[in-house]
């Protein structure tokens, strides 16, 4: 396997269960045939590939859990797990419809590779896998006007302490303009709703220095302003894990799956570019955690951000300049 990735160390090493933190990675890409790349991924990871439908494969044999590779199209995946009755008219029609949908989807819908939660020491395997996919001809978001592909991070929470969870969200809000500029979000991704920022009213509310909610209130406030998974930092999987009843009272979206982790959706996947790998997205997230872990610096940064929001004519670019001069850890 690959050597350990040289990624920035995060301020919290252990998770909420006082075990080494784990990180799930989701990589969207195109340009490769599902069946062909499945065999290459299985060989590279030294795992067994098993079909889980006509458009989905799982890789078994890893003690961390199963890896997954699929065509990222929910309807087609559901159809791909059904059997056709080739002797009936309905079965033939279903098969024909699926064939047409698959042909269209392959042109615009990415393949998605999903890792199990991995400890920091194993993230080098993801870096190595990205290199293999790049060499095989994988295409990223800016390769085509039809693409809007991301690389998503799922960092386990270090604690269930509401103060820490609140500070991570606050830090992200303060840094989001800088992170978006840093990611160079292409036109197609910027036009989609998948990575929307939090509403301005929510940003003002949560970055107020007097905002000291209980966990129940933190979840309620988030759900009031963000009843959707389409946020650059999606907290619904985390809050579903912490309080399923609250979240399911607001949304029954089956794509929201409970997990004790933040869902960082902002980074783009540029796997076709030489030298691009996990490092870029990781370093951005590391800045969020380092700001969140430094309470005095975060409080000063939030006060400045509140002034930025209130100042007539203040722009994202002017805030980014202030961030880079005063508030970043790098």
Q: Which labels suit this protein?
A:
disordered N terminus, globular, single chain, 11% strand, two-stranded antiparallel ribbon, 46% helix
Could you characterize the architecture of this molecule?
This protein has about 325 residues and is of the alpha+beta class. It contains 13 helices and nine strands. The strands form two sheets. Strands 1, 2, 3, 4, 5, 6 and 7 form a seven-stranded antiparallel beta sheet that branches. It has a two-stranded antiparallel sheet with strand order 8-9. A hairpin with a 6-residue loop joins strand 3 and strand 4 (about 65-70). Helix 5 (about 160-185) packs across helix 11, helix 5 (about 160-185) packs across helix 12 and helix 12 runs antiparallel to helix 13. The chain is globular and about 55 Å long. The two termini are about 30 Å apart.
Radius of gyration from CA coordinates = 21 Å
Overall average pLDDT: 88
Percentage of residues in DSSP E strands: 5-15%
From the spread of the alpha carbons, the general shape counts as globular
The H-and-E topology, N to C, reads as: EHEEEHHEEHEHHHHEHHEHHH
Largest sheet: 7 strands, antiparallel
Distance between the first and last residues' Cα: 30 Å
User: Percent range for helical residues?
Assistant: 40-55%
In DSSP terms, counting alpha (H) and pi (I) runs of 4 or more, how many helices?
A: 13
Oligomeric assembly? single chain
What is the number of E strands? 9
């Amino acid at each position: 396997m690959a050597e350990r990735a040289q990624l920035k160390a995060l301020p919290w090493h252990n998770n909420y269960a006082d075990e080494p933190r784990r990180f799930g990675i989701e990589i969207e890409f195109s340009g490769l045939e599902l069946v062909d790349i499945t065999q290459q991924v299985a060989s590279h990871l030294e795992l067994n590939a098993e079909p889980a439908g006509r458009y989905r494969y799982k890789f078994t044999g890893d003690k961390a859990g199963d890896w997954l590779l699929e065509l990222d199209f929910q309807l087609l995946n559901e159809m791909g797990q059904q059997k056709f009755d080739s002797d009936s008219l309905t079965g033939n029609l279903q098969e024909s419809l699926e064939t047409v949908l698959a042909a269209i989807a392959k042109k615009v819908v990415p393949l998605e590779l999903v890792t199990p939660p991995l400890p920091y020491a194993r993230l080098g395997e993801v870096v190595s896998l990205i290199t293999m996919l790049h060499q095989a001809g994988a295409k990223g978001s800016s390769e085509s006007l039809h693409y809007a592909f991301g690389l998503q991070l799922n960092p386990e929470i270090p604690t269930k302490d509401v103060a820490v969870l609140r500070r991570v969200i606050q830090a992200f809000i303060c840094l989001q303009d800088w992170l978006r500029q840093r990611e160079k979000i292409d036109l197609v991704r910027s036009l989609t709703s998948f990575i929307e920022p939090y509403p301005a009213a929510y940003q003002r509310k949560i970055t107020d220095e007097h905002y000291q909610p209980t966990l129940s209130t933190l979840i309620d406030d988030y759900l009031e302003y963000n009843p959707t998974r389409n946020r650059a930092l999606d907290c619904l999987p985390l809050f579903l894990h912490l309080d399923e009843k609250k979240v399911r009272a607001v949304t029954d979206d089956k794509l929201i799956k409970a997990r004790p982790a933040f869902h960082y959706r902002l980074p783009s996947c540029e796997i076709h570019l030489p030298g691009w790998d996990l490092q870029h997205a990781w370093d951005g997230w590391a800045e969020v955690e380092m700001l969140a872990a430094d309470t005095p610096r975060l409080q000063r940064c939030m006060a400045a951000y509140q002034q930025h929001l209130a100042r007539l004519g203040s722009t994202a670019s002017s805030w980014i300049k202030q961030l880079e001069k005063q508030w970043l850890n790098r």
